[in-house]
Design goal:
The protein is mainly alpha-helical. It is built from two helices and two strands.
Length: 94
């Protein structure tokens, strides 16, 4: 099974290279630009797919941290005051 898949892939690459040789110089440069842009797009999509679970976990962690911080503060209606904004009592020296 894998041998047939690999043979088909090699055949496709050979046919594309043969097609490239048959083109003139102007069309060959356009073909090269197109193939580079397609490769860059495929690579970007593959990397995004590879990194998707990691970014999703990071987004979930950031959301959980924001929810935790919101629960630690004080709510008066729809106004949120974090605990870290509380000022320590002033020392009266006189």
């Amino acid at each position: 099974m894998i041998e047939k898949l690999l043979a088909g892939l090699v055949l496709a690459v050979c046919l594309v290279m043969l097609l490239r040789l048959a083109l003139g110089s102007a069309r060959r440069s356009r073909f090269d630009r197109l193939s580079r842009s397609l490769w860059a797009g495929l690579r970007a999509r593959a990397l995004a797919l590879w990194r998707w679970p990691r970014s999703r976990r990071k987004a979930q962690q950031l959301a959980d941290d924001a929810i935790r911080r919101a629960r630690e503060g004080r709510w008066e209606g729809n106004v949120y005051t974090p605990d870290q904004f509380k000022k320590p009592p002033r020392d009266e020296m006189h």
